[in-house]
Amino acid sequence: MRGMSSGANKVDEAMAFLDGRQEGLFAGLIEHALERGGVVHAAPDCFFVGVPTETEGVMEVLFQCSHLAALRRLLCAMMPKYTRVRWKREFTGRASYGERERAIADFCRHEDFGTGLTK
Fold this sequence. Notes:
Elements: H1 10-21, H2 25-35, E1 39-43, E2 46-52, E3 58-66, H3 68-77, E4 84-88, E5 99-103, H4 104-109
Parallel strand pairs: 3-4
Antiparallel strand pairs: 1-2, 2-3, 4-5
């Protein structure tokens, strides 16, 4: 995420970013995901929150703050239960590019994951 150092703990970064936008947003996002049978992954190199969609096999990313390699490993670990991932940009303050969806397998087979979530 823009403006966040790459060496910092991603859980701390996510909490500071979300709660900086609205107090309690970090905890509320986690609660929202868990109530819907979603995934919350919190590790020093990756904070991820996603929920299953009405379409079987599709995980919608609600928020992620991660080193790209860590996000790739997490997405690949979600297979075969989830085969596609859906996301959109809303939080960063940069221009929104609408909703996107890709097969998780696409992320898992690329050595350079650096552009995977923006194309």
